[in-house]
Amino acid sequence: MTTIALWQVDACAYRPFTGNPAAVCPLEACLPDPTLQAIAAENNLAETAFLVAAPAGADNDLHLRWFTPGCEVDLCGHATLATPHVLWRHCGFAGATIRSRSLSGQLAVARDGDRYALDFPSRPPAPVVPPAGLADARGASPRAVLAARDLVCVFDLQADVAALETDMTALARLDTFAVTATAPGAGLDYVLRFFAPRAGVPEDPVTGSAQSILVPYLAGRLGRDAMVGRQISARGGTLWCRLRGYRVDIAGT
């Protein structure tokens, strides 16, 4: 029987039992996809990150993949943030930056004071007609609906986002990976909640990949590239973000 090391890390946490728990599993070689999926389902966390060290001399330090309890995903922020924490603290990795190859191309995580900063792709959303069934799923009426990989529902008030009582069954019927609800924040640039029941994640505590969509949109609205957001899930977490051309920097603890 193969033994696989596993760390569970609360990414974007501001105190114990906050942020988003991610499992991190370093592997000597990649395992079959059904095995990876079964491990992620067994962990029953929003994401499990599997990483394999690249051969000596390669352009990337790692090959990185992410699985929810229900499927593989193309981009995940909080598990990517958790991965270098494990490598730097427990696995003897040196250097200020860790690079990885993923389904979303090359990614990097660098030390940023007491935070880790992700270098992610920018995925600007575009306005769309609200799809049929969204009104049944969302529990409130947004003033705008946008789409990139995920749907984004824009509300006027933080209280509107906080009060959402989303119908997960109806939401899972929509032809989208996930739905993000966002609004201006009290003392922050924005707040958000993130729902992905089709991927086995009814509500995600903190979602780094959502910032790839929100930050380019909000930069246009706010008239500046740097901003601070907070995911107002039950566990909660804060993200420091900056739009940098076709990339988005996303930092968290």
Task: Considering the chains and any ligands shown, give keywords for the structure.
Diaminopimelate Epimerase, Chain A, domain 1; 2 domains; alpha+beta; 21% helix; 6 helices
Can you walk through the features of this model?
The protein is α+β, with helices and mostly antiparallel strands and 253 residues long. The chain has 2 domains: 7-112, Diaminopimelate Epimerase, Chain A, domain 1, CATH 3.10.310; 126-252, Diaminopimelate Epimerase, Chain A, domain 1. It is built from 6 helices and 17 strands. The protein has a 17-stranded mixed beta sheet that branches. The mean pLDDT is 93.
What's the CATH class of the largest domain, please? Answer: Alpha Beta
The beta-strand count equals 17
Please report the distance between the alpha carbons of the first and last residues. 35 Å
* Envelope shape: globular
Instruction: Indicate the CATH architecture of the largest domain.
Output: Roll
CATH superfamily of the largest domain: Diaminopimelate Epimerase, Chain A, domain 1
What series of H and E elements makes up the topology? Answer: EEHEEEHEEEEHEEHHEEEHEEE
The amount of beta strand, in percent, is: 35-45%
Task: Give the number of domains.
Answer: 2
Tally the helices: 6
**SSE-based structural type:** alpha+beta
Radius of gyration using CA atoms only? 18 Å
Topology overview:
Layout: E1 7-11, E2 20-27, H1 33-43, E3 47-53, E4 62-67, E5 72-73, H2 78-90, E6 97-102, E7 105-112, E8 115-121, E9 126-127, H3 134-138, E10 144-147, E11 151-154, H4 158-162, H5 168-172, E12 179-183, E13 190-196, E14 201-204, H6 208-222, E15 226-231, E16 237-244, E17 247-252
Parallel strand pairs: 2-3, 4-6, 11-12, 13-15
Antiparallel strand pairs: 1-2, 3-4, 4-5, 6-7, 7-8, 8-17, 9-10, 10-11, 12-13, 13-14, 15-16, 16-17
